[in-house]
Amino acid sequence: MHPQLILASASPRRSELLKQIGIRHSIMAVDIDETPWPGETPAAYVERVAAEKSALCLAATATDLPVLAADTSVICDGRILGKPDDLQHAIEMLSHLSGRSHQVYSAVSLRGEQHWQALSISEVRFRPLSHQEIVAYWQTGEPHDKAGAYAIQGLASVFIESITGSFSGVMGLPLFETAQLLSLAGIDIIQ
């Protein structure tokens, strides 16, 4: 079966989520500078990064397939928490999230004949975490390349008291919004 689109991401989670809804895809990861601009809002940041990823991928490929890209960030107190650099950075992030609510912004960019974008914002509440739990979690390797230093679909699920919004969005690809964009491009999930 031929792919229906190109996923501009090396994220295994995004690929798994597309497979979950039956979307055949090929992968072409792109690398861009993901540094937030001074004064950039979280919504503008994730939308810009997703759009830059899809534009770069589309420019680098010689196909007429649509290109899908996404970007997800954890936001606490208005601050964008990226991926942790090391154990100390993960301790700072997870300690900041401990016992509190935070937001997860996930933007989707789809380029074909047009450019479509969507944004999902979810609210996640962590239970209080001990220093020992955070260190033990880091040692599992799971949080190393995750926004906010956690993976909702993994071991960190035991930290989460509640979620309001999109579980798949917190994972990195909000499927409701993605399906809406795919439909605009003529790719229907359920026929």
Automatic annotation (TrEMBL):
GO terms for molecular function: dTTP diphosphatase activity; UTP diphosphatase activity. The active site is at 71 (proton acceptor). Its EC number is 3.6.1.9. Its main location: cytoplasm. InterPro entries: ITPase-like_fam, Maf-like. The record marks 13, 72, 153 as: Important for substrate specificity. Its cofactor is a divalent metal cation. Transmembrane segments: none annotated. Signal peptide: none annotated. This is dTTP/UTP pyrophosphatase. It comes from Methylomonas denitrificans.
